[in-house]
Every structure is written in structure tokens, then in C-alpha cells.
Amino acid sequence: MSRNPFRKSVGFYEVGLTTYKNNREAEKAYTQTNQMATSYSPPSKPPSQESPKNVDFDLKDQHKENKKKYLTAKYGAHQMLLIKKRLGVEMWIFDELRKLYDSENDDHDCELELEDILNLDTDSERRHYVLEQLQDAKQSTDLVNKFIEELLIRAKTL
């Protein structure tokens, strides 16, 4: 039985005579020593020549099902500017509709879509479409007309 010259027995404990450069190395060695002392693992088998060259980890099917995949796209600066501008107009429409319908959330029956407004050719068609959608507005017609005028101006900027 050969003895390790870097270990010394003190009472019932073996003390290592290794010096470490920093605390992390010392902590790592300490935890490895404690794991070796408290847990037993059978000796590993030598690798056989028939073993595959790649390692295949055994993943649980539940983990694969729970993992969601997201696709992200990178837009150019000009495209992002257009997207932000359009989103700003849509958020403005949403806020104004809440004011026109006196509601705190989106519980009104207005189906006003910016895409539909932009697809119409003339301002008179757009005005007629918006008026049809805002028939049930709880605010005065002056406020509704002011909203329509502002909406047409903002739609022209898109």
C-alpha cells in the first residue's frame, strides 16, 4: 500500500499539503474532497471500441413539450421606424376610443381597424368608414368629428 507524500494523517483526518492560488481553487478542492468522502460511485468501465463517437443525452419528453420556440426577426432602422410610427398611431386610436366610449378597458363594440382605413382610397371614404364604426360613441358629435379629423391626418403620415 503506497502512501501519498502530499497527505498527512492528523488524528482520524487526512490533511492535504496542497497550496492554492485563490479561494475558488481551494473551495473546489474542498467540495470535491467532501463529495468523495460522502458518496460512493462504482468504478467506471473503460470505454469500449464499439461506443459511438457522439454523446446522446437522455432528455425527458416533458421538457421538450414545455419548451416554447420563438422566432425573432431583425428589422432595418427604416423598417423599425415605420413599425414604431404605426404602433404609436394604433395606441393613440386605442386611447381615444376609450375616451369616446367612456370605458376603462377595451369593452366597447367598435371594430375600427387602421389597416381598413389605410386600404381606402379617398378621405371621404375613410371618413364614412370611421363614422359607421363610431355610431355608438357616447361622446358628442363634435368630439367624434375632431377625432376623425386627427385620425385622417395621422393616417396620411403612415
UniProtKB/TrEMBL annotation:
InterPro entries: CPI-17, CPI-17_sf. It holds the Pfam family PP1_inhibitor. Residues 39-52 have a biased composition (Low complexity). It comes from the Eukaryota. The keyword Oxidoreductase does not apply. One of its GO terms (cellular component) is cytoplasm. GO terms for molecular function: protein serine/threonine phosphatase inhibitor activity. Residues 29-56 are annotated as: Disordered. Keywords: Phosphoprotein, Protein phosphatase inhibitor. The keyword Oxidoreductase does not apply. Belongs to the PP1 inhibitor family. This is Protein phosphatase 1 regulatory subunit 14B. The gene is ORF7346.
